């Protein structure tokens, strides 16, 4: 059973491999995506370590001079995706988008070094990546935390990686739509429109892109100019975890200055996260930086915070909250609380289960000693694969596969889950 599943997962990765990068899936997403690639490298590392390192190297080869690592690299022309390079117009030799995505590389690179069979290769590649990843982290704190709060804001919902989460509804409603150039969406030609964001959301996504473009993608201006500025606990937890892991790696590789700065970022971030805690919800919440208020939206962003080394009692509360969600959802972890009126079990980030988030939550809770919850998350993740294949995301109620099929990072997470002792395939 386990062998067959591993073989299938490897096949998905190979199928989406374009040589030096992978696409998330053919058709719907024909380019390289930032956090997809980094998490997918963890999958490749199980059967081809050199290929895994190449995946991350290719992404960082397109890092901007200011340190940002873009969310999409448009390696080849493909008319099947909107918004393409002409809409972004970032002026790069190989076109990229102009926003970023969750910075999971610090975590992934440390894990790949720890698990490497070829230690020389791992040390050599990690050493080359170290200053680049650090530059990305510094970019975050410079450009997205101008008041030095310890936490960074996203300025576009797509940066969160949870594109149409209910978390963004109120802040996105304040984004205007005047002047949005007419467009044709491609995503709904590849996937069921009922599983995707709405047209009203897309208009605002594009308004933000046009506005940033009109500012020449100058990151010294974009944060303050954006009407959408949200501090997402999940996103910040990924950044904090990556800083902490990079600190360890820098220590091992004899880079004390990077180690010190990275540790400082992580320590300040963990302390600042406390402001996002909600006793009423038993989880962290997003903060709207434009209004200064917490966003009353019980999403998976506040549970993903467990990926960072949050205080033990916070991790325990998150585990209890996830156990409770498990009463309403057959498959953990729904991306939104099923009892909330806006919950939609099929629509992208408004309810469905995503294996990558399950993986990161399980990893954090495992370190925090919450083993029963971790076992259920892993068992549910593998049950979804057995019932519905390697989909992009799944209904937490019925296991219906949604979005794209043969999905790269879903397959990569299966390889990671199956390598863990708690996994029963
Ligand atoms: C969607 C997801 C995002 C992912 C991308 C490619 O935009 O919301 O997290 O990176 O697809 O898979």
UniProtKB/TrEMBL annotation:
Keyword Hydrolase found: yes
InterPro entries referenced in this protein's UniProt entry, alphabetically: 6-hairpin_glycosidase_sf (IPR008928), 6hp_glycosidase-like_sf (IPR012341), Glycoside_hydrolase_63 (IPR004888), MGH1-like_GH (IPR054491)
Keyword Lipoprotein part of the UniProt annotation: no
Mannosylglycerate hydrolase MGH1-like glycoside hydrolase domain location: 29-410
Signal peptide: none
Segments traversing the membrane: none
A matching Pfam family: MGH1-like_GH
Keyword vocabulary terms for this entry: Glycosidase, Hydrolase
GO molecular function terms attached to this record: hydrolase activity, acting on glycosyl bonds
Family: Belongs to the glycosyl hydrolase 63 family.
Protein name, per record: Trehalase family glycosidase
Native source species: Hoeflea ulvae
